[in-house]
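Objective 1b. Sequence-to-structure analysis of Nuclease-related domain-containing protein.
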Amino acid sequence: MPESPAQVTPYQVLGVAPTVDHDELRRAYRRKLRETHPDTGGDAVRFAAVQRAWQKVGDPADRAAYDRGASSPSGSAAWPTDGSSSTWASGSGSTSRQQHTRPRARLYGHPGGAARETYLRLIREWAGRGPDLPDPYDPALVRSAPLEIRLTLAKAIAEEETSVVLADLGIGFTVWNDVDPGRDEDKIDHVVLGPTGLYALRSEDRGGSVSVSRGEVTGENFGDREQPIRSLVRSARALGRSARVKFTGVAIIVPDGSLDSEFEEVGRARSPEAFVLGRSRLPHFLRAGSADTPIVGGTESFEVRTRLQAAVRFV
């Protein structure tokens, strides 16, 4: 699986530019080892990250492979470098190209579309090449771009990967992607209607660990003033008012492994309820609902779907 463009590069971990020679890279590695070693008061997590970084670029051959797009000393690709088949370039996960023999969920809108457009604009402006930039998804280019730009691409990929999971839920579900809730609120990445209710989802990938603190999502590369859950609740309420529907819950979807428990209930005091969960938990969550979630009947579901179809606007 391709590594996230939001993840820090080995060069960033070691505190050097990607263009340094091998001797300077080795000196930076030894310096970081001394700074982070647990026996001398350092941090074990950072110490392990320094070692992993050196494994990727410490050997000249491995470093050359990494700079071409490989993610490990074995030479396995960090992401496809062929733009015609690359997940990053094509705008859809590889599983979405597989043949499906059973009915899939109804999907509307373009997942990740707005984020990809933003990424393409930013990367072209930063590179100074405008529309003539040959490959905006070139691994070396992406890795050298500022964090803000890489996070935008990671956001697009996260939305696309979530949409692949949602498509496999089956014919009992309807999904609207990249929805504008109106009232100048942030967009809703995915609006999902199914037997357990109506949910607003936000897909995130900040390239590191995620936790829940004081009713909000926190972690690496989240801003101090960011409020992803509160923002999503406001957007869901705005759309609910315009469509005359009520959301059952909202959820922040994060990459598997980034959340320790893989599922966090933020609190039932909210309306709608709020959750944070790993992407692989999403199908079970939407099919089972929470403990007190009633099953939505066919007539009620049809009415909600009709109202949403009339009210939904895409970004």
